[in-house]
Recover the amino acids of this structure.
């Protein structure tokens, strides 16, 4: 036979559990109601779950790849995986789907005072286009958000994927503040880079990007047809050197090998933008990439834990799951 103390405790468990899960009261209000501290409330709720008084079940959505996303999160130690569902398996369909998925991810993450670091690329262009489309996410007036360019300019300023242009467009979409990195992304020598870093505006912008709450980044591959090669950002001489170092991709011109390790090359001293070490410290470092051409670079970035959130397509997700 239970003692009075045991019965009272069991009754309290039920009262607290019903107040929290059925009445939807906060732990603070429950504490006030029953004269208990928030720590005590938290312990009672945990005990209620452990003893089966409270049983939580999830009704999984139909036709969604929640299980695959969770499996990839566990396999690669990621905070989150989001799988885009393109209408077809061609490059443009994948790019558009990645953009909409990334736009939705960004919208649900923002609260109104974040620093968002942004670099360049086709998938990030798709994100901006998704936010600005008639069917895009609801846009808000967030003047306290800062959208920061995390890599200097690459290619022609008129190009759609040019980082400064994307930062301006995203900032206008949110009614936020744009912080532009007024410098090229890569320069001719380490000494030129050091001199540019002495400029207060350039130095402070990179420092601000390093303090970002969220970073949105494309993941590039290293092939003759890749964007950086087509735009002549990397000369053929360096391209051949990178092949000798087993380079498979880059994030913001920080090149890494098949294990996700940043290469030891003098180009690192000529890039004006976030380093791999700075990127790794950002609380929500989101890599947005997909398609068969980028598989090796995506897999390497995951192996090296260069990002903690991945947005990719269903075809790449399945292949990543099959990887041993």
């Amino acid at each position: 036979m239970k003692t009075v103390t045991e019965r009272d405790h069991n009754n309290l468990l039920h009262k607290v559990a019903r107040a929290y899960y059925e009445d939807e009261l906060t732990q603070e209000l429950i504490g006030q109601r029953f004269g208990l501290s928030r720590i005590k409330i938290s312990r009672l709720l945990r005990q209620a779950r452990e003893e089966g008084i409270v049983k939580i079940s999830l009704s999984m959505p139909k036709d969604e790849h929640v299980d695959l996303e969770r499996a990839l999160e566990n396999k690669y130690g990621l905070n989150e995986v989001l799988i885009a569902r393109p209408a077809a398996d061609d490059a443009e369909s994948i790019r558009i789907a990645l953009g909409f998925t990334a736009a939705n991810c960004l919208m649900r993450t923002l609260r109104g005072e974040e620093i968002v670091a942004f670099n360049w690329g086709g998938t990030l262009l798709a994100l901006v286009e998704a936010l600005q489309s008639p069917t895009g996410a609801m846009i808000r007036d967030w003047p306290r958000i800062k959208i920061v360019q995390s890599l200097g300019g690459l290619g022609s300023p008129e190009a759609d994927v040019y980082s400064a242009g994307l930062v301006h467009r995203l900032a206008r979409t949110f009614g936020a503040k744009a912080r532009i990195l007024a410098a090229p992304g890569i320069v001719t020598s380490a000494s030129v880079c050091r001199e540019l870093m002495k400029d207060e505006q350039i130095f402070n912008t990179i420092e601000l990007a390093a303090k970002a709450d969220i970073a949105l980044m494309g993941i590039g591959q290293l092939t003759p047809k890749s964007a950086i090669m087509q735009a002549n950002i990397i000369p053929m001489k360096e391209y051949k050197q990178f092949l000798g170092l087993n380079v498979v991709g880059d994030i913001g011109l920080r090149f890494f090998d098949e294990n996700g390790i940043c290469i030891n090359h003098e180009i690192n001293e000529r890039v004006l933008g976030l380093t791999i070490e700075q990127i790794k410290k950002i609380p929500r470092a989101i890599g947005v990439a997909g398609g068969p051409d980028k598989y090796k670079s995506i897999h390497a970035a995951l192996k090296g834990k260069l990002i903690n959130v991945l947005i990719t397509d269903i075809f790449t997700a399945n292949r990543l799951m099959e990887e041993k």
Q: What stands out?
A: The mean pLDDT is 89. The chain has 14 helices and ten strands. The chain has two domains: 4-50, 66-322.
